[in-house]
Amino acid sequence: MDIEFLSQNWHLILTLVFILALLFLEPYLLKLSGIKSVGPLRVTQLVNRESALVLDVCTDKEFIGGHIPDAINLPLAKLASEADSKLAKAKDNPVIISCRSGNRAKSAAKKLKKLGFNDLYILSGGNAAWQKEKLPMSTKSS
Hints:
The protein has 142 residues and is α/β, with parallel strands linked by helices. The protein has two domains: 1-32; 34-132, Rhodanese-like domain (Oxidized Rhodanese, domain 1), CATH 3.40.250. It is built from seven helices and five strands, in the order ααβαβαβαβαβα. Strands 1-5-4-2-3 form a five-stranded parallel beta sheet. Helix 6 (103-114) links the parallel strand 4 and strand 5. The longest helix has 23 residues, at 10-32. The protein is elongated and about 60 Å long.
């Protein structure tokens, strides 16, 4: 890399370093807040051994297209307004949050944490990771 380029474009390089730091820090910040990331096989253990609830925050259309069996659908857009009524019984149990790829699940977990849910998990890789493990999907509505 040319030193002249670096000196003339230091602000671009600084921006790149900042963005990379945010990308790498996000998993650690989630963990510090008590939100854990789990893979598909761990999800099955949590559901079977600890009566965990699977919460799918996909849109209604995505949910009908395929979701983890027995998951409850509560789209991210409705989460803040409907979480207390739809998830009241789950506050004392582990809640596993899923979506198509895992990105919306992170936002949902942060919102649920603020609403008093403590035992939160994110399905790493989302429903796509679930399907990749060849685990069953359902098309029934909740």
